[in-house]
């Protein structure tokens, strides 16, 4: 029969070994041991337009033949619209705490504009259909690693290119049925924060990022929904999971 003091010593030794084993940081698939590594991402996207109106934006719209198409406008707004993105990640280590990365992704997220008129029957929502290829280039500044966790901030620029857009899709429609369109390519600046969580065979990085377009993304046209707007800027919130 094992004496209690020996049993206690064995239990303490076993517990100490378990604690020591748990304190060993996870390998994370070796991503941080390489200068160059790759991964993929899934993202939730929420966006809306910031609207700069034309000086006479409330005026009713008249067709080229002088026919009044709409009553005077009361409001133009842009509700939040949701979508998703899937992408690819390429990361290059500059120092232990600084890296650069490019993360091209296909973004499937429409945008919405809401118009209210003095004649309520003319109130409408206009969806700006958009599928884009986004190519962001970012610098990522990382904290020291604490166990299996490391926080970071990042910032950079992004170029977005529309895919499959048709500028003349409504060329033969009446002014009241026209669509609002965006330019095919535009740049944005972005900033975000996140954390690296290390597992045995991979690294998971939840990240939240804000981006704002540079310049005007509106394609100006002479119809009731484009003419009242002087400038559109796109604001995007993206929550992503990166697997590396």
Describe this entry's structure for a reader.
Keywords: Signal. Residues 36-217 form the Outer membrane protein beta-barrel domain. It comes from Mucilaginibacter corticis. By secondary structure, the chain is mainly β. It has one domain (28-243): Porin (Beta Barrel). 8% of the residues lie in helices and 50% in strands. It contains 1 helix and 12 strands, in the order αββββββββββββ. The chain has one helix spanning 4-23; strands at 36-53, 73-77, 81-93, 98-102, 105-108, 111-117, 124-128, 131-142, 149-162, 185-198, 203-213, 229-243. The strands form 2 sheets. Strands 1, 3, 4, 5, 8, 9, 10, 11 and 12 form a 9-stranded antiparallel beta sheet that branches. A 3-stranded antiparallel beta sheet has the order 2-6-7, with no helix packed on it. The longest helix is centred in the N-terminal third of the chain and has 20 residues, at 4-23. The relative contact order is 0.21. Residues 4-22 have low confidence and may be disordered.
Keywords:
three-stranded antiparallel β-sheet, Porin, 8% helix, mainly beta
How many beta-strand runs?
12
What ranges have pLDDT less than 50 throughout 5 or more consecutive residues?
4-22
Beta content comes to over 45%
| Distance N to C terminus | 52 Å
Work out the oligomeric state of the chains in this entry: single chain
The CATH topology annotation reads as Porin
Taking all Cα atoms into account, the compactness measure Rg is 26 Å
Largest sheet: 9 strands, antiparallel
Question: What's the tally of helices?
Answer: 1
Q: What gross morphology would you assign?
A: elongated
Percent of residues in helices comes to under 10%
Mean pLDDT: 87
């Amino acid at each position: 029969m094992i004496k209690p003091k020996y049993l206690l010593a064995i239990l303490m030794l076993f517990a100490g070994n378990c604690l020591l084993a748990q304190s060993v940081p996870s390998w994370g698939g070796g991503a941080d041991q390489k200068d160059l590594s790759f991964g993929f991402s899934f993202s939730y996207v929420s966006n809306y337009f910031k609207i700069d109106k034309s000086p006479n934006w409330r005026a009713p719209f008249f067709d080229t033949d002088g026919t009044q198409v709409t009553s005077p406008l009361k409001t133009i707004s842009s509700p939040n619209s949701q979508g998703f993105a899937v992408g690819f990640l390429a990361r290059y280590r500059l120092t232990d705490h600084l890296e650069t990365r490019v993360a091209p992704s296909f973004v499937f997220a429409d945008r919405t504009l809401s118009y209210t008129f003095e004649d309520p029957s003319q109130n409408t929502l206009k969806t700006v259909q958009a599928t884009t290829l986004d190519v962001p280039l970012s610098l990522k500044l990382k904290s020291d690693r604490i166990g299996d966790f490391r926080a970071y901030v990042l910032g950079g620029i992004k170029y977005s290119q529309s895919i499959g857009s048709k500028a003349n899709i409504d060329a033969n429609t009446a002014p009241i049925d026209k669509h609002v369109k965006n330019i095919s390519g535009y740049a944005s600046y972005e900033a975000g924060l996140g954390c690296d969580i290390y597992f045995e065979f991979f690294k998971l990085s939840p990240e939240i990022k804000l981006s704002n377009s540079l310049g005007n993304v509106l394609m100006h046209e002479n119809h009731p929904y484009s003419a009242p707007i002087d400038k559109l800027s796109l604001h995007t919130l993206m929550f992503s999971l990166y697997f590396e």
